[in-house]
Amino acid sequence: MKVLIIGAHGKVGHLLIGELQSHNIDFVAGLRSEEQIKAYQANNIPTQYIDLTGSLDDIHDSIIASGADVLVFTAGAGGAGYDLTMEIDLDGAIKTMMVAEAAGIKRYIMVSAMYSEDRSKWEASGIRPYYIAKHYADEHLRGTDLDYTILHPGLLTDEESVGKIKLSKDGGSVPRIDVAKTIVQAIETPSTIKKEYEFASGDEPIANVIK
Amino acid sequence: MKVLIIGAHGKVGHLLIGELQSHNIDFVAGLRSEEQIKAYQANNIPTQYIDLTGSLDDIHDSIIASGADVLVFTAGAGGAGYDLTMEIDLDGAIKTMMVAEAAGIKRYIMVSAMYSEDRSKWEASGIRPYYIAKHYADEHLRGTDLDYTILHPGLLTDEESVGKIKLSKDGGSVPRIDVAKTIVQAIETPSTIKKEYEFASGDEPIANVIK
After folding, report:
1. A93 CA: distance to closest CA in chain B (Å)
2. What number is the ipTM of this complex?
């Protein structure tokens, strides 16, 4: 098994590197700039250039070159503008799904968001376009024949690991480090295929919830 | 037959009113503000309030209240910001499709754009987020059981009617008034159901092309 982290320079992606290392899972960090690649290589982290705003052919070449058989999508435009939200979180994500299907790479872990299926929460959030992008990327993924798992964490924080979560459709926060741990749990648990999990910090071991 | 023009205050929507009138097709102008409604009513144009950023329930109520059995989607955020492009052109459009399916309103005419299926043209266009929104709205429509027709006009102009078009996947412009005429042609031609047309001004009568 080899994991390509799509969005390895993001906060969750960066934390995922450490989790994969501690679980001895082979991986490669997908990065969009030479500057990021140099910085990661200086820390002996294996890297793969991938630009989600690029063409399908270029994304195909990047994913094949990575040698990965598991894709983790944890990229996002963040606050860089809703043009990039559409290009990264929506179209960028779907392009990686199209490449995965074409290349026969079945396993795909999507880091989505709590409320991506609950329109009633979008308007008051102040970031409705973000939820729209995540919603339609998830919808596309469900329509593929990929072995997907969709994770829907609540409000992300930079706090230390709680290491325990609970299923929650309506509120709650979770440290990004624990999101990284749920990704590893999903990667290691084939029974999570074709399932989705809305979750926040709680009092259950992650392995008891993501199963 | 009664047509609801979703986006009747837009340039194409406004021109469509005159075309429907001259063809004696019953219609109602879908508008998003009381100000627009007052202005149209002052001209004896039947109106229906509809806010594409509203909830599914509210959009459902608006569409049912219109009494329409044909929906024409010609709304768009235009240059108002890519947050609204996501909320109107993508999610707003799809919400009207969801309502149409739930309400059993089968006929749906989508005004899309040339190149919405051709990613190679998006980047250089300078309006890639617009194409992303149109692309995924169209994709969703194809997956519904609606009796859709998708029109993909080339570059829209405000010039006078040529009255003739041609199929074109790669370039060309077309006056908005002729797009309005193609919409009427699609409405009046059941054999256009489940079909898509990429077109620009040309030398064929519209009825010879949209058939």
Report:
1. 12
2. 0.92
Substitution target in B123, B128, B136 with the highest count of A β-carbons within 10 Å is: B136
What is the C-alpha separation between A197 and A112, in angstroms, rounded? Answer: 10
- What does the pLDDT look like over A122-150, one tens digit per residue? 999 999 999 999 999 999 999 999 999 99
Given the residues B40, B115, B130, B148, the one annotated as active site: B130
A87 closest CB neighbour out of B53, B56, B129: B129
What is the distance between the alpha carbons of residues A34 and A1, in angstroms, rounded to a whole number?
Answer: 26
| CATH tag, B2-209 | 3.40.50.720
* pLDDT tens readout for residues B101-135: 999 999 999 999 999 999 999 999 999 999 999 99
Residue A69, classed as helix, strand or coil, is coil
Say which residues have a Cβ less than 8 Å from residue A154's Cβ, sequence separation at least 6.
A114, A168, A171, A172, A173, A174, A198, A199, A200, A201
Q: Tell me which residue has tokens 């102040």.
A: A126
Using the structure block, give the residue that is written with the tokens 């094949």.
Answer: A64
Q: The tokens of A21 are what?
A: 């290392």
Long-range contacts of residues B130-133, Cβ cutoff 8 Å, at least 24 apart: B130/B85, B130/B89, B132/A86, B132/A87, B132/A90, B132/A91, B132/B90, B133/A86, B133/B85, B133/B86, B133/B89, B133/B90
Kindly list the residues from chain B whose CB atom is less than 8 angstroms away from the CB atom of residue A53.
Answer: 123
Whether B197 sits among the annotated catalytic residues: the reply is no
Burial group, residue A31, by CB count within 10 angstroms (0-12, 13-18, 19+) = buried
Predicted model pTM: 0.95
Q: Which of B87, B132, B139 comes nearest A87 by C-beta?
A: B132
